[in-house]
Amino acid sequence: MFSSLFYIALLLFLLYGVSLAVDSINPLQFISDGETLVSKEGVLEFGFFSPGNSKGRYVGVWYKKIPVQTVVWVANRCSPLNDSSGLLMINKKGNLVLLYQNKRVVWSTSLAKQAQKPILQLLDSGNLVVQEEQNGNLEGYLWQSFDYPGNTMLPGMKLGWDLRKGFNRLFSAWRNWDDPCPGDFTWGIEIDVQQHTFPDIYMWKGGEKYHRAGPWNGLGTSGMPVSRPNYLYDFDVIYDEEEVYYTFNLKKKSLITIEVLNQTTLTVQRLTWVEAVKNWQIYYSVPTDQCDNYGLCGGNGYCVIGGNPACQCLKGFKPKSEEKWYSTDWSEGCVRNTPLDCEDKYKDGFVKFVGMKLPDTAYSRSNKSMNLKECRAKCLSNCSCMAYANSDIRNGGSGCIMWFGGLMDMRIVTSSEQALYVRMPASELGKSSTKVRAVKVVAIIGLVSGVLLLGFFIWRKKFKEKYRKTAKYGEQEEDLELPLFELSTIIAATSNFSLSNKLGQGGFGPVYKGTLDDGQEIAVKRLSISSGQGIDEFKNEVTLIAKLQHRNLVKLLGFCIQGLEKLLVYEYMPNKSLDFFIFDQTQDILLEWSKRFNIICGIARGLLYLHQDSRLRIIHRDLKTSNILLDNEMNPKISDFGLARTFGGDDGKSEGKTKRVIGTHGYMAPEYVCNGRFSTKSDVFSFGVMVIEIVGGKRSTSFSLQNEGLTLTGHAWTLMQQGRAIELLDSRLRDSHHDLQEVSRCIRVGLLCVQQRAADRPSMFSVIVMLSSNSSLLPCPNRPGYFMETELPQRDCDPLLTNTITISGPEAR
Ligand SMILES: *[C@@H]1O[C@H](CO)[C@@H](O)[C@H](O)[C@H]1NC(C)=O
Ligand SMILES: *[C@@H]1O[C@H](CO)[C@@H](O)[C@H](O)[C@H]1NC(C)=O
After folding, report:
1. By the 8 A CB rule, do 314 and 302 touch?
2. Is 122 in the same domain as 194?
3. Whether the predicted model's global pTM rises above the 0.85 cut
4. CA-280 nearest atom, ligand 1
5. 213 and 71, same structural domain?
6. Which of 178, 212, 270, 527 could form a disulfide with 284 if both were Cys (CB 3.0 to 4.6 A apart)?
7. In angstroms, what is the span from residue 177 Cα to ligand 1's centroid?
């Protein structure tokens, strides 16, 4: 009795003792169900598993240390075993073989070349490789799982073609989360080497193009410029004689990141493991919005996010079928106003479009050695060439892509600096150049076209209304789900906008407290009349904002439009705003550090949502502590967001330039004050100022008044340089016990956000990862913007712009 137990124990010890310690096997060994290979540093594990609710047994690779089952590669994707009798082995030729009930081969690999003394090894990268035992890495791999991808891209994996061997690494989603067999959602690169088309990265749904990344321009894809610097990842697309592939790598090995095809949502999601919350966080999810749907606007049309309608024809083009176009079926696209005259092709010219995602390169020809001038000449010489562009935008631009046929799948990408040149007949070009030359002509044309435009808009409105009745109700036509308040209700609730009800002044108008008949308290924002927005645009905007839901954003309850009044009704936050708690020295309730840290993280999450998770990509433009409201549990809620994007006449773009700089002194990024250029990075700047204020418990504006012009951020940076950063911490918090690591991490992150150059500042996602990771991910910040108050840029700015700056002064003294 005792001895048999002993033998069982010994057996178990041998089985598990072997499996736990080993990262490779040779042809004399095998792996049975229950045993695993573990990579050298213990990151990944290879063995038998059952996904989700499935009972079937599969062989695959997963993260060993992550408590949420995360399988990154599966061998027998479509042929599960029904019991635990499976054996995985490597035969003498070097092929992997999965045996079922000791006899049936369920899955195997087939090498072209026979191996001598092969071993199977699981590497820490997640790559399962077959190589010769002696030669090690010198010979390269005879086989590797990275060449047979499933639904997950690990750092260092390649998506795309090995042109020498003519094989393609195509990713495919799992059919569902219980079944790793390929679904119909795939991801890969398309290229026609013979025709010299330029490669493009696509997602397909059931074989149809579903999303396109846009050609790689050396810095990013033209559809999604990579924000630089990226503190967390490196992305690259390699395109040469031998290979065409996309890959990404991590800046720090401690960061665990993967890209996964999700068949449920039909997206590719970039997930990062965040230890602090013990879960995967979605960093990016593509497609992101309506405009990311492949070819939404048809040929020669382009998509504008938040636009009404979403699709527009390129300049010089008109809808092919007006009837369909105005009933929001854009699939037929646009045709030229004036057809090209091929007899006279050398009279054609090109119109330059900047900030446009380049069209589908499936219909392109490319040549890396041509410059832009040669590219133009070549395109001009062939009447079917519709457009051209540089293929690489680095170092002033090089290479040539030319498009033939319709220009498909374009959208506005404001942060892109790449130019697309679209062919136009001389007659179309003439129209615009006369305008530039003679002022008189401008005036006349202006007058005439003004009248025409007015006529057109009236006609179009009628036309649209007519079709709206018959058209199917698409997303655009959705009724506002938001309550429409009567002006009289609001007047009663706010005692006719009385001064005693005024809560404050935001960038776009005053805010009042109100009480509805049923006792519900509300905050009413009265938008400045000068906002110059039409009723339709306003409604459109409000509908979009109403869809923003995040626990770190103040909730919109309804709106009101009547006469000249445009009002937004928000939930009322009784706990006032953040500035009240951190700057008021007499406050009884001192915000302790853990609360402050929660607030910083909450603001960061709300802002990330505005910048990238919501479908809108909103830039706030007036972030400051008085715009952060606190609920009963002191959770932060960003207020005054949303309308930020279109107010100020920047035609609905999410990044751009405005002549009307709105914001608050001390929080605005240098490039915004100076040139009116705003972007997510100008919000990041304001966020950084807030972080430093929250840590220090000091208002940045009053600090520089008391310190001969040294700004609070400048002071923090100096302390950091001297290794005394921690001295920035609010003196009222010094005595109690805190996580000093957390404090210094916040200071470091805050300083990274306020760097002078917008390009140096991290994205909000990087901010969140940096705030919540314990690893030493944090680079050294450069000098902050406005190191000294005397560096305030008003003086150096373009005088035309400074006139239109509306800056609120320091609020409290
Ligand atoms: C698929 O995406 C949805 C939405 O983002 C997410 O909730 C879900 O967890 C994802 N599935 C997996 C298995 O990652
Ligand atoms: C124009 O270019 C297309 C596509 O490369 C080609 O098929 C056609 O022969 C060219 N036409 C002329 C006149 O060169």
Report:
1. yes
2. no
3. no
4. 14
5. no
6. 270
7. 9
